[in-house]
Design brief:
Number of domains: 1
CATH class: Alpha Beta
Low-confidence stretches: none
Shape: globular
Number of helices: 7
CATH superfamily: Vaccinia Virus protein VP39
Bound molecules: S-adenosylmethionine
Helix content: 25-40%
Strand content: 25-35%
Strand order of the largest sheet: 3-2-1-4-5-9-8
Oligomer: single chain
Distance between the termini: 27 Å
């Protein structure tokens, strides 16, 4: 875990909540929910202030919401009563447990070697044919933004290849660009994978 990145989220939680507050339903989240069985069990990895986890809970899913930032977890629980918990990506140790994992712009804070190590952990945590949603910024290299958050950028093809090495088959791709908390417009990709047998 990068302490500096998590400290930024702890400190700028109000700005992050304002930035991500929207009345509009998140269409990629709606599609993700549509790929899961009724009452699916979902891990929200890096849940932030909990809006996606709350939408999934409202859709009847059982949500395990986790984040490394104590402030994010506090707000998620205060706003949405999620029973979210403080946990790092590296601490996920469930086996054959989840129908889906929602990792929306969280794993971009891992280094490439951490990311490669985490992928088999996520595959193990999913049931067979479980669904992984991955939102990532695209580009290349590793750098801190002007707030101090550390990011690793990948070309889309590299992400798909890394995930294929960990037995994840891509089933949907969306692309876009958006202005983040640091104020810069950056391209992103939303990838949906199915966990195949390894
Ligand atoms: C850009 S925010 C995304 C939050 C949420 N998924 C959303 O869509 O709004 C990234 C989140 O990843 C969390 N995070 C960063 N490093 C982490 C780590 N090593 N383990 C768990 N969570 C981490 C941050 O605290 C932050 O809440």
């Amino acid at each position: 875990m990068d302490k500096e990145t998590v400290a930024v989220y702890d400190k700028q939680i109000d700005d992050y909540v304002d930035l991500t507050a929207t009345e509009k339903p998140d269409e990629s989240l709606t599609r993700f929910i549509g790929r899961l069985p009724a009452k699916a069990h979902v891990l929200d990895l890096g849940c932030g202030p909990g809006a996606s986890a709350a939408a999934m809970k409202n859709a009847g899913l059982t949500i395990d919401a986790t984040d490394a930032s104590g402030e994010m977890v506090r707000v998620a629980n205060e706003k949405f009563a999620l029973e979210a918990r403080v946990a790092t990506f590296q601490s996920i140790d469930q086996v054959d447990h989840y129908d889906g994992i929602w990792a929306n712009f969280s794993l971009l804070h891992a280094t490439e070697s951490e990311f490669i190590e985490i992928l088999p952990t996520l595959h193990r945590a999913l049931k067979q044919n479980g669904v992984l949603f991955l939102g990532m910024k695209t580009g290349s290299g590793i750098k801190r933004d002007r707030l101090g958050r550390r990011y690793t950028y990948y070309p889309e093809e590299t992400l798909i290849a890394l995930l294929a090495n960990a037995s994840f088959k891509v089933i949907a791709t969306e692309r876009g660009e958006a202005i983040g908390l640091a104020g810069d417009m950056e391209p992103f990709v939303l990838l949906t994978f199915q966990a195949s047998s390894s």
